[in-house]
Amino acid sequence: MTATHPRRRKTVALATAAVLAGLTTPALTATPAAATTTAYDTTYYKNAVGKTGTSLKSSLHTIISSQTKLSYSALWEALKVTDQDPANSNNVKLLYSGISRSKSLNGGDVGDWNREHVWAISHGDLTTSTGPGTDLHHIRPEDVQVNGIRGNKDFDDGGSAFTNSGGSLTDSNSFEPRDAVKGDVARMVFYMIVRYEGGDGWADLEGNDSVSNGGNPYMGRLTVLKQWNDEDPPDAFEERRNQVIYDTYQKNRNPFIDHPEWVEAIW
């Protein structure tokens, strides 16, 4: 999502043209997310503000672990609210493809949208029992066939386009979301890493730099996800979604939408 927000700025280091023989132009790099403040810093996040590293991660885990849990079937109606297309209230906006599709076309047939787990449920055997496999903070509507193409692949740069890709790419072992939602994907993965640490009967989810995690409770590539968080800061759609989940459904927040700079502070 490329729209800017008054509390955040998206900057990259500018490459200087090479004017002398033998001078190499530096590659563009993402600038770490700028510090932010929110209305929740003195209440919801009061025990986390000012911390870094493992101390921050531990505090956020405690904060966001207090949540109302949804059943897998309840996600259908919830997604129609959390992912409503701002331009058409009859539709939802699909994550990877960017398509606006009728809310009524939810199901498993070609042309339908279904429930995409950004943290693939096979990575740690999350299943669709009430728990991490039904956590709205990482579940988004997506075209049935696009969902199948993503499968359980880890995230990385590179690949080829496909039908209804919307700019997303894939290859044999990884998936790259379209530019407008790269940061969204990253922040959902970081939420899952912090929320699920193995203490509630589910796997301890962690990030790494692999794209061959298979059924292991890991998601990669961590370095790429960090870059996506910086390149694509939260916009109004992502912030509204976070608020709706907090107010109406789970009563917990994704802290990396409120404070994207906390990604760098932890990792």
Fold and architecture overview:
The protein has about 270 residues and is α/β, with parallel strands linked by helices. Helices cover about 30% and strands about 10% of the residues. It contains eight helices and ten strands. The protein has helices at about 55-65, 75-80, 145-150, 180-195, 220-230, 235-250, 255-260, 260-265, and strands spanning about 85, 90-95, 100, 115, 140-145, 155, 170, 175, 205, 220. It is globular and about 45 Å long.
Q: Profile the largest sheet.
A: 3 strands, antiparallel
Number of helices: 8
| C-alpha-based Rg, rounded | 18 Å
Secondary structure class reads alpha/beta
Strand order of the largest sheet: 1-2-3
Estimate nothing, just give the exact number of structural domains: 1
Query: Between the first and last Cα atoms, what is the distance in angstroms?
Result: 22 Å
Helix content: 25-40%
In brief, what are we looking at here?
By secondary structure, the protein is an alpha/beta fold. Helix content is 28%, strand content 12%. The protein has helices spanning 53-64, 75-82, 144-150, 182-195, 222-231, 236-249, 255-258, 262-266, and strands at residues 84-85, 88-93, 100-102, 113-117, 139-143, 154-155, 169-170, 174-176, 206-207, 218-219.
